[in-house]
Amino acid sequence: MEKIHDKKRLVINLLDWYDEHARVLPWREEATPYRVWVSEIMLQQTRVEAVKPYFERFLKAFPSISSLANAKDDELSKVWEGLGYYNRVKNMKKCAQMCMELYDGKLPSTYEQLLQLPGIGSYTAGAVASIAFKEKAAAVDGNVLRVFSRLLVSEDDILKESTKKKFQKIILDYIPEERCDAFNQALMEIGALVCAPNAAPRCNICPLAQDCIGYQNGKAHYLPIKKAKKQRRIEKRTILVVVWKDKVLLYQRPEKGLLSKMYEFKNLEDHYLKKDIINRIGAKHVLSYKKLKDAKHVFSHIEWHMKACLIEVDEPIEEGIWCTKEELEHTYAIPSAFQTYKESLYEWWKEKSYE
């Protein structure tokens, strides 16, 4: 029996489902170009529920492209603190500055113009162009690749850029002129809520099932094809939370490289014994030493395997930045890699009545 795939019916069913089931999200309620752009950058590598509070906080701190273009780097990093992938927000500032120079403080309205801006790739350009400016442009992210791999039984590796470009051309033929914004959001939504990852599609409730060749062939469960990535490099790290009374010692990371210009606790390469750690901090007297739990943090190409301790000293070491709890909360952005140790520090301050 020939498998059925009716493009027109698929689009109608998808949009009808979206009209009924679309989640209420702050960036959808008022889809201005700036709000759409901010949300799309935040949603890269980050879950929707995690983004919501950050989106509101970011818009309050930087309500316009001009305010973002003029933001101080430390302030920007602090507002972004906890979202990770900090190059995203650095590129946002560069993008805002370019918009001030070239587009009178506004985002340009076409896919091709958007694609020329820092930090905006083909997916983000397609999303902003279609949602904010109603241009017929494809917005192909991981959700969309998964949905269409199953719809068309594609065994192309979705991690390859060539596969993404192939699907951009294919999907353009499905996008309706009159509702291109809703179509792209509907595809992302059905990928997030129904055509789920990890070999667990909810085909029994999917409005696209009758036009999904993968479902009809019984192949949807093993798609999409995603070849294994190169194994991450393991780095051993020893994190020293050095405290003096109500202050903690911070260091700013270099301008280039991982977590550039962010603040961290003393961060040593490799793992060390207690005696070696005490020798390395350069304090005359150590008042207390507390071992903290081990932690792991995964970056795109590196894993940090961290051991840590909290060390109380009797006088400030002549290096770094001695930071109060208030400054830690409002001034200095600490990467999420160190969140466990930041919480341990707060507990220690509480026990010592330094809060």
UniProtKB/TrEMBL annotation:
The keyword Disulfide bond does not apply. InterPro entries: A/G_AdeGlyc_MutY, DNA_glycosylase, Endonuclease-III-like_CS2, HhH-GPD_domain, HhH_base_excis_C, HhH_motif, MIG/MutY, MutY_C. Pfam families: HHH, HhH-GPD, NUDIX_4. It comes from the Bacteria. Its EC number is 3.2.2.31. Its cofactor is [4Fe-4S] cluster. It catalyses: Hydrolyzes free adenine bases from 7,8-dihydro-8-oxoguanine:adenine mismatched double-stranded DNA, leaving an apurinic site. Keywords: 4Fe-4S, DNA damage, DNA repair, Glycosidase, Hydrolase, Iron, Iron-sulfur, Metal-binding. This is Adenine DNA glycosylase. Adenine glycosylase active on G-A mispairs. MutY also corrects error-prone DNA synthesis past GO lesions which are due to the oxidatively damaged form of guanine: 7,8-dihydro-8-oxoguanine (8-oxo-dGTP). One of its GO terms (biological process) is base-excision repair. SMART domains: ENDO3c (SM00478). GO terms for molecular function: 4 iron, 4 sulfur cluster binding; 8-oxo-7,8-dihydroguanine DNA N-glycosylase activity; adenine/guanine mispair binding; metal ion binding; oxidized purine DNA binding; purine-specific mismatch base pair DNA N-glycosylase activity. Residues 42-193 form the HhH-GPD domain. It comes from Amedibacterium intestinale. Binds 1 [4Fe-4S] cluster. Belongs to the Nth/MutY family.
